[in-house]
UniProtKB/TrEMBL annotation:
Protein name from the UniProt record: Uncharacterized protein
Top-rank taxon, per record: Eukaryota
Annotated family: Belongs to the zinc-containing alcohol dehydrogenase family.
Coiled-coil regions listed in the entry: none
Keywords associated with the record: Metal-binding, Oxidoreductase, Zinc
Keyword hit for Amino-acid biosynthesis: no
Cofactor(s) in the UniProt record: Zn(2+)
MF terms (GO), sorted A to Z: metal ion binding; oxidoreductase activity
Amino acid sequence: MIALSAHTLSNMWLKGMSDKSLEYPLAYGYSLVGRVVACGSNVYDADELMGRLVFTFSPHSSRVVVDRDAIQVVPDGISAEDAVFFPSVETALSLVHDARVRMGENVAVYGQGLIGLLVTSILSMQSLPLTSSADCFGSVTAFDALDARLVVSSSLGASSALKPDLAAAAGPFDCSIEVSGNPRALQSAIDHTSNNGRIVVGSWYGNTDVVLKLGIDFHRSNKEIVASQVSKISPTLAGLWSKTRRFSFTWALVKSLRPSRLIAKRLPLYEAQQAYELLDKGEELVICFKYE
């Protein structure tokens, strides 16, 4: 089983690799879940692995041959449909770590695609009511242009789920996380983050030219803009967090969040063209390819 999202389609492929030539067959993707059906003679734990549900950062395929070190055994209690979200949940966790959100802070999340929704969900786990009133340990405000996504944001615990043109009225924010892939959202994040606040940019803009207005107000604001990417541990965390530790906690989040509820369709791989067309139109959030 593999997962496909609009974020992967538009940001990673269309924008970032438009100058690359394509060859058929194309091995694409990085999230594959399946069961072990055979092991090499040098696999030390072959008996324990046989038949187990495992995850690997591999392209879309019905069968793969990978090194033992390239697979992770899916923990008990996690389904294949939840496990396929492992890379996306790790990315969301990495963004939250890089944002360094403190208790009591008000956070904005720009973009409620798959990654944005997962960021919102993780942040909302930390937004606990102080009393029966609306007061809480900070707030999480989600922004997106699509009404359907805002409905999901609210269901995942966002304090507010708003259209982008309401950012000025809702702010300012102590921290803004931008995962929309839209330069206008990045500008809004910069404009509506408090002086001395933090803007974490998780979007992949590829070859897109991004023009920002960074005038006198920004110049005097002491705002911090951080580029966040999941492939490495931030230097500020490297003394405490390893990849192994983050992987382990990501699995705990997968089990808690149950991200499979975000799946809109389950299709066989031969209907891949339909899947990409639906994602390109913004009609679906996440589509899974399922192998029988």
